[in-house]
Structures are given as structure tokens and as C-alpha cells.
Amino acid sequence: MKRHFRVWRGDAGGGDLRDFEVEVNEGEVVLDIIHRLQATQAPDLACRWNCKAGKCGSCSMEINGKPRLGCMTRMSTFAENELITITPIRTFPVIRDLVTDVSFNYEKARETPAFAPPSGVAPGDYRMQQVDVERSQEFRKCIECFLCQNTCHVIRDHDENKPAFSGPRSFIRAAELDMHPLDSRSDRKEYAQASQGLGYCNITKCCTEVCPEHIQITDNAIIPMKERVVDRRYDPLVWLGRKILRRDQLETRPAPSSVAAPPSSARLPASAAVGPDGHMDIAELTAPLQGGPSPFGDDLTFPIAPEELLYNHPDKGNKP
Length: 320
Hints:
The chain is α+β, with helices and mostly antiparallel strands. The protein contains 11 helices and 7 strands. The protein has helices at residues 30-40, 103-111, 130-137, 147-151, 153-156, 168-178, 188-195, 206-210, 217-234, 236-245, 282-286, and strands at residues 2-11, 14-23, 60-63, 66-69, 84-87, 94-96, 99-100. A hairpin with a 2-residue loop joins strand 6 and strand 7. The chain is globular. Its cofactor is [2Fe-2S] cluster; [3Fe-4S] cluster; [4Fe-4S] cluster. InterPro entries: 2Fe-2S_ferredoxin-like_sf, 2Fe-2S_ferredoxin-type, 2Fe2S_fd_BS, 4Fe4S_Fe-S-bd, Beta-grasp_dom_sf, Helical_ferredxn, SDH/FRD_Iron-Sulfur, Succ_DH/fum_Rdtase_Fe-S.
């Protein structure tokens, strides 16, 4: 069945919307239609794409005015007689047709301070509790489609804000590092406020609404960062407490001489959980870096070869 599409054609100098009638088959997505359009009617149509599986973030575009991924927008979500308009994402300069210059986002990423390793702890000795891993795990799902950047009205409607505003993508990176227990920098929140423009965000949640990975950008990253900045800078009780107790100058508890002292924000390694039968979980046994000392003594080396494990899978009705 043929469907009516209206696609923006042009470059940095200008352009307009062109009408096309394109064949649509069951189960197809908008990116399939773009490819068929290139193959049959507009071979010079420029469109950025890579994986066609919603994991590379390349095919960002605006479909009927909403920022979406072309490969994740099914044609079945539109009415049969609906006109489908496809345009490039509006916040960034057009290179040609549906391809835009998103270098702004990479420039802001380079300005973000990188992870600062803890002093006195070798990379192989890093330890994190699972609760700390889960706290910021969702931020690592970002595929850098920049739909959140595109829909953020702070820069979508005001190009003059771009030098001072890094956008939601940078904020979740800052929040991820701020929540990292081994990151030795303690000024992530203050840096986000002073240099990344965190204060420009007025929490409309438009970035969360368009995220294809369903990351709770506003609730789990931006709002907590804003709250901690306010606590540090404006809460009179916190200010008075820090003055009286001088918490900034408190020394961490000295570690034993045989073990390097971790930073104050790091948690000490915890022993692995041991079951009633005295065995650790199979995931702990096969891990090259253990969460704590082995209950079996110091003569056991890790990882243990799978064939040496006495383990019966619970799916077979057995217990380990």
C-alpha cells in the first residue's frame, strides 16, 4: 500500500519539504521507508544510520514534529491516511537533508571532567557495592542519539545559550560520576552548576519523554543534582554544621599498613555472601576479581575452572 510522505530536502543554505508516495509493507519502520525512497525516487537523499536496532542512536530525526529514532518508529503507529512528515532534528545545524551537525554534543563531552581514579588504589583493586552499581547503571544505557539534547528548549529555541549550557546528556554523565563511590572528585555538582549550566534547566521533563532507552533523566539525574547543589550552597543548617564540625577537614580513618587507604568516598571490600552449605554463589567463584576474601583459605586461586565446580543448576530441581 502506498503512503504519503513529506520529507525535508536541502542543506545549510536552505531547503523545503518534498512530497513522495512510497510503498509501505507490514512490519516496516520509518527508516525502511527512507531506504526505499533512496532506492526508488531520491538516490541523493542523505540520512545517517548504522545499526537499525535502536542501539547506535544515528537515525535521529523528527517525525510529525516529535524527535524519534527512525528505526524504532513503526509505520503501524500511524493512521492509514495520515500524512507523515520527516525533518532533521532542529536544534543542530543541517548538513544536508536529514543529516545534522551534532559536534556540539561531543565538544561538551570533552569539557566534562573525566573519571578521577582514587589515589592509592590500583585499578584491579577497585571495589563497588552492587547498590552503587545499580544507582547509576541506567545512565550508561545512553546511546547518544541526542534526542534529549534536541528537544531541550533551553538550546532548541535559544542558540545563544549553547556556550553556557551542556544539556541533559552531559548532566546524566555528571550525575553518574557524582554517584560513583570511587570517583575522587568532590565538585561534580558545583561544576555542573557553574560550568555546564545546570541552573538553566527548569525541569519540564521533555528530555525524559523522548529518550528511547527510557532513562529517567530528570527524576534520577537532574533533580538530585540540583537538590544537592542547593543543600551545599543555600541550606543554612548545612552551612552552619560544616563551619562548626569542619567536615571538610576531617581526616579519614587510617587503614592498616598492609592495605592502601581508599578515598573517603570509597567503600571497603565486603566478604562475599556464603550459603548455609559454606559455598559461595557460582558467579562469585568464577569472577576474576573477588568481592572479598575467600572462605576456603588462601591456597585457592581464582577464577575457578567451571569443570572443577560442584554445582547443579536449580532449573533441574536441584540445589547448589
